[in-house]
Amino acid sequence: MLKTRSLHPGFGIEVLDLDLADPASDAAIDQLVRDLDHHSLILVRGQKLSNERHVEVSRRFGSLMTHVLKQFLTTGLPEIYVLSNVSENGKPIGNHKEGWNWHSDLSYVAEPSMGSLLYSVEVPPEGADTLFASMHLAYEALPPATQQRIRHMTATHSYAGYYGKAFADRAPLSDEQKARTPDVRHPVVRTHPTTGRLSLYVGEDIIKQIDGLPPEESDALLAALNRHAISDAFVYRHRWQQGDLVIWDNRCTMHCATPYDDNKYRRVMHRTTVAGTRPF
Ligand code: OGA
Ligand code: MN
């Protein structure tokens, strides 16, 4: 039996007294894999994970995806995507300002990620919290008429569109990167494949439009759904400590980074990304 405490009344647990670096924790990790379906987010603090062990733990959740921005796979293990403001030898070791919008990881591919495992290697003493919102809670709190209206809508997710907005100051995506990330359509309401529970599947910047609506109506509906989805009542704010591992379910949560003084402080985060299936 794992010792846990709740992080938010509606989702998210912290698992206490667990050392993931210990190979004897494998049975507990398999329990976390099952718990994730029901709790959407799991925090384990005080970890000392080598890159190899981070990948090994992550693999118990499923096969891992490698990020399209190869320049940020800098640990020697291609499964680890680095988020950081740090440069070494004049080169960034990770993507800075990754996730500074509300999103679900890799929603812009046909088979988006089912979950991510983000490990904090170095964190600023202030700022840089990550916000997580439960899209189950968000969907369930919508008025029934809105649920009905959006139930069978789809939306177009575009990585190229997002990249152009978020990273306008950088070199554009290469043809190869663009070829790996064509626009895709996903349902606006998706079903959790193991629990059957419904959730909203929206996001800022990555969604180009809600399909079949005139642009103004699409923009207005998307803005209203996003605003609703990130209401305080559905959000858990994570204040990072070094050695935290946060595991979240991308099928039913969104998350968003918050700013910090990036001139003063270093931040180094390692993410693995578990493959998922086509949303329905
Ligand atoms: C991510 C992400 C936000 C943050 O790792 O996928 O969006 O606060 N991170 O680092
Ligand atoms: Mn993210």
UniProtKB/TrEMBL annotation:
<dbReference type="Pfam" id="PF02668">
    <property type="entry name" value="TauD"/>
</dbReference>
<dbReference type="GO" id="GO:0000908">
    <property type="term" value="F:taurine dioxygenase activity"/>
</dbReference>
<keyword id="KW-0408">Iron</keyword>
<dbReference type="GO" id="GO:0046872">
    <property type="term" value="F:metal ion binding"/>
</dbReference>
<protein>
    <submittedName>
        <fullName>Taurine dioxygenase</fullName>
        <ecNumber>1.14.11.17</ecNumber>
    </submittedName>
</protein>
<keyword id="KW-0479">Metal-binding</keyword>
<comment type="similarity">
    <text>Belongs to the TfdA dioxygenase family.</text>
</comment>
<feature type="domain" description="TauD/TfdA-like">
    <location>
        <begin position="4"/>
        <end position="273"/>
    </location>
</feature>
<keyword id="KW-0560">Oxidoreductase</keyword>
<dbReference type="InterPro" id="IPR042098">
    <property type="entry name" value="TauD-like_sf"/>
</dbReference>
<dbReference type="InterPro" id="IPR003819">
    <property type="entry name" value="TauD/TfdA-like"/>
</dbReference>
<keyword id="KW-0223">Dioxygenase</keyword>
<dbReference type="InterPro" id="IPR051178">
    <property type="entry name" value="TfdA_dioxygenase"/>
</dbReference>
